[in-house]
Specification:
240 residues; alpha+beta; Glutaredoxin; 2 domains; four-stranded antiparallel beta sheet
Length: 240
């Protein structure tokens, strides 16, 4: 039932976003794509019509941007729709991207499942982050409130950091939940290696606006930066 509701929510959001991404397929903005990739060396993931006539919305591996139709000018920031009550059009697009990505990584998160699941949140985490550790110390309280927590990796120091290597060991552990708990307690973690998605999840986080940890992706695609006590998060989830 919960999975069906998440799929429905994603479908509704994507239906409102579909008009923006068709251009990558029909080649309408090939010149923009080539310029962004050649000059800035960003990987263009999708692009199409922006909410403002004459601008192009460009999703890259470094985040969401807007360009002029010829790719000469690049803009970074939010677009608000005044006629729709200051609707944040940029956040609307990012919400779609977050849900799509979370869906793609569904089989590679480290999940702490609530026995009586009412809500599912995806949390970008770093095992060395103080507030990430605080959140994890309270994981039983989250689950008791019906909140399933799915961890995605976001080593704040980047892919050359010790945190990255340690998180690979967590994601490659035989018992990932136990390894996560050990690592977040600051205890010695057994080294492990395997084919893993830690780098992919980190890069996904960069694309959708994550700049620190913890960052919580809600079921509607909204992003909450920072730690949230279980009760506060539950109240937020009840309102969406």
């Amino acid at each position: 039932m919960k999975h069906g509701l998440r799929v429905l929510a994603l479908a509704v959001l994507v239906s409102g976003f579909a008009g923006k991404i068709y251009a990558l397929e029909n080649g309408k903005y090939d010149a923009v794509k080539q310029k962004i990739e050649k000059v800035l060396r960003f990987e263009v993931l999708s692009l199409g019509d922006a909410p403002i006539d004459g601008l192009v919305q460009v999703s890259t591996n470094k985040g969401l941007f807007y360009t002029s139709a010829d790719g000469k000018f690049l803009l970074s920031g939010k677009i608000f729709n005044v006629d729709k009550g200051m609707l944040d059009e940029t956040e609307k697009s990012l919400s779609v991207m977050r849900l799509e990505g979370a869906n793609e990584f569904e089989d590679s998160v480290i999940e702490f499942k609530a026995p009586d699941e009412k809500y599912v949140v995806n949390v970008f985490t770093d095992i060395s982050c103080g507030y990430c550790r605080k959140l994890h110390r309270e994981i039983d309280e989250y689950m008791a409130n019906g909140i399933t927590v799915r961890y995605l990796a976001f080593p704040r120091g980047g892919l050359a950091s010790k945190a990255y290597r340690d998180m690979v060991s967590v994601w490659c552990a035989e018992d990932k939940q136990k390894a996560m708990t050990i690592a977040k307690a600051g205890e010695k973690l057994e080294d492990a290696s395997c084919s893993n998605v830690v780098a992919d999840q980190y890069e996904f986080g960069q694309r959708i606006g994550v700049s620190g940890t913890p960052n919580i992706v809600l079921p509607n695609g909204a992003l909450i930066p920072g730690y949230q006590p279980a009760t506060n998060l539950l109240n937020t989830l009840k309102q969406i």
